[in-house]
Amino acid sequence: MPTQDIRQRMNQRLAELYERHLALHEDKIVGYYTPGTGNHKPEETAESEHKRFAICLATTDGEVFYVGDHDRPFALQSISKVFVYGMALEAHGRDNVLKRVGVEPSGDAFNSIVFDERNNRPYNPMVNAGALATTDLMEGEDPAEDLERILGVLRRYAGNEDLKVDEDVFALEMGSADRNRATSYLMRSYGMISHAVEENLALYLRQCSVCVTSRDLAVMAATLANGGVNPVTEEQALASRYVRDVLSVMHTCGMYDSAGQWAYEVGIPAKSGVSGAILAVVPGKLGIGVFSPGLDVYGNSVRGIKVCEEISERLGLHIFADDAEDALLGPLNSGNGT
């Protein structure tokens, strides 16, 4: 476990990182997400959102560090796809899931209505079409049971029994889900989903409308970093044999159609959501949760990306970094900056 001196140093560096990035990047913001519209709202209408910002780190030892609006709730949105994909793998096995959802980056926007026509399946579970297919793989007797199972799993990942659907967000999303609805009906016509379209769509949008904080997000990431075991509660959230599959798809497909740039610059598995959150995983070491709702053209958090780039660079976390193996604790012990 970290010593008190290391904890103080980590908190200080997080505070410095937060202050530095709070003052930067607003010139690169395209807009802010409006629940239910599927669009970015103009920057001038989102004045109250400009300074919303939090950085949280959770280690596989169960230590949690945070700075900023760490207790402000936001909808998981696309980040929920990670955890439901893991549930599908546990329920059906990797080979059966692979028949229904591929693992190839699509290169298209997350809401594109495109499929892998050679294999009659969505390209991957991180785009909307793939997520609709993995939601369709839930095994409950009815959607209410499926939702309770999803909530139970999300609560184990976060170590927070209070996680629930924000019904206001859900109502907005459901009321303007025409593109996802069109995707669903087309998928059903091809045999890619089997449940009633409206029931499956509602379940998908409810999972996206579950609210978390950036602290929850960091612990969820640390659970994946810890082989599927929550490092704070020590509860198993995902069977360890499927963690590799989830992280692999996150690494290649998790950041919308800028996943390649992320892999090149940051080099760790991650998933973003249009609410402004990024979940990133350093296997065996660390989970990262960043929240800042200013988005770039791809729908990723502008500050979130820059914070993760800096953390990865300074701690040598990129999967291909020469010093990645021992870099996490090295800078903390030596007093170098985060």
From TrEMBL:
The keyword DNA damage does not apply. GO terms for biological process: glutamate biosynthetic process; L-glutamine catabolic process. It is an enzyme of class 3 (hydrolase). Keywords: Acetylation, Hydrolase. Its EC number is 3.5.1.2. It catalyses: L-glutamine + H2O = L-glutamate + NH4(+). Substrate binds at S78, N128, E173, N180, Y204, Y256, V274. It comes from the Bacteria. GO terms for molecular function: glutaminase activity. InterPro entries: Beta-lactam/transpept-like, Glutaminase. The keyword Hydrolase applies. Gene3D superfamilies: DD-peptidase/beta-lactamase superfamily. Homotetramer. Belongs to the glutaminase family. This is Glutaminase. It comes from uncultured Rubrobacteraceae bacterium. The gene is glsA.
